[in-house]
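Worked example 2:
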Amino acid sequence: MSEAPTDTAARFDARHFLKSVSESPGVYRMLDESANVLYVGKAKRLKARLSSYFRGALNTKTQALVARIRDIQVTITRSETEALLLEQTLIKELRPPYNVLLRDDKSYPYVFVTDRHAYPALEFKRARQKRQDGRYLGPYPSATAVRESLALMQKIFRIRNCEDSVFAHRDRPCLQYQIKRCSAPCVGYISQAEYQRDIDHAVMCLDGRSEQVTKQLTLAMEQAAQTLDFEEAARLRDQIQQLRRMQEKQFVDNADGDADIFALAEQPGGLCISVLTIRQGRMLGARHHQPENGLDLGIGELLGEFVSQFYLGQSNEIPQEVIVSHPLTDIDLLQSALGERAGRKVRIASQVRGHRAQWRGLAVTNAEQHLATQLANRSQLSRRFESLRAALDMPQPPARLECFDISHSQGEATVASCVVFDQDGPVKSDYRRFNIEGVAAGDDYAAMRQALTRRFKRLQRGEGKLPDILIVDGGKGQLNMAREVIAELEVTGVALIGVAKGVTRKAGLETLFIETVDRELDLDTSSPALHLLQHIRDEAHRFAITGHRQRRDKQRRTSSLQDIPGVGPKRRRELLRFFGGLQGVRKATRDDLARVPGINEQMATTIHQALHG
């Protein structure tokens, strides 16, 4: 067992790293040549944030940071709020030199509300003061967290943020009123009672009682609609929708629970096991390992061996619960051994629900993302292309590969995919999908003929580049069809490879046909050339399935709640009340929908699929 290696010999290759970075929210750690953490940051979109470090004008300190980077590790979260919580945890634990560090952990910031003003503001306070003329809310983990909370309350409830001296001398509304961030109490545009109601609602939200506020606003919205005050009803509806977004469940900071989550991701040429650490309900981070599977063990056996070494072969703390992405072999034996080592009962589970299922999903996502980043490494790709050149006895490595695959459900919504790889990895801008029309349902050969014909006719017209190698997934029949198309269109200079799954349909046991069905290529399961062909084949398969599902779901999709089976008048009314309208229902996640009275998890999934495919 070994932790994922870091390349310390060369400068960090940002361009290749950024090609495989996720668009999801998360936390990133920048490491130097000794694998020491230089900086910890959070991002709403990891790819966009990390890209900003390697383009455009940077200040002197940021340039110094970037010059020292030799590796970047990312941990994906479900929301930006989760990323903020994890960022603060890692900063406090690691104390990176380029982060702003609190010198005194006792100096946490607060929100203060005075009771000596007719129209109080929500104030930022660095520390509690002895005076007792108001209420302190907090403490918060950082000044950023306080300011973000205050900005949100100002946006939802239009609370003033000006100083008392400015407030006392206004004779007309300021710009904050014009942009709907203040109700202008300074010039009497709102009564004292109404403003105090908004302050009370804001304090309740900051105090964790936002659900109670939402119910009050929902009743007020319905009353306004009944009295035909539609402008007020619309304003309250907007407040409800903003509050619902704020109430999104956070899975990085649950109430309790100690657990380690082990997730295994595997692709041709590599595997990754990510370990997510949860203590007292808070995610402390993820570590990635890339063990060798020298005996070609099954996933359950390999993961069980890793968990055993992680705890019994090292001095790692054993939590109350171990969650794994795949069922383990000999789980009872391992569970007993861990319990004996820990001196208490230890539970190992792969089938979990609720927030534990969310932890498990996060671990799987992180393992897949880290593995994709490692496989996109330039040195790894160069080795694979060179291995393919040697296997095909070519004078030089191929510059461009294209792979085609077909996907459908019993002949419905047939889609062909074309994915492109060059020596830098996937060229996603050149990916293409073809909606297949006019062929018999389930006729994969005719579908392949149509896709290849359309593709190579476009190439003949100068639309795109001709590949050095054309790969078709499906074996002898698909290879013969590709040969016929190329011969009919008189295409030259393109080598053909057919990839057929073996009898067992296991990765590594594929049969490769070169140019004709009579010429087989036998590659060892550890061959980088085989890993490259498997990688592009799997990518073509994924791209085809995604396109097929989108096309199928678009045909089946309904856009009205009344067309969804099981959603009657009562459930429609509850959904619209809970989210403040159909637009709020459309924006809701499955977990949000399941929180509506009368909507269970199964019905939430049905509604979400009907609205989003």
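Residues 89 and 354 are 23 Å apart (CA to CA). The chain is about 45% helix and 20% strand.
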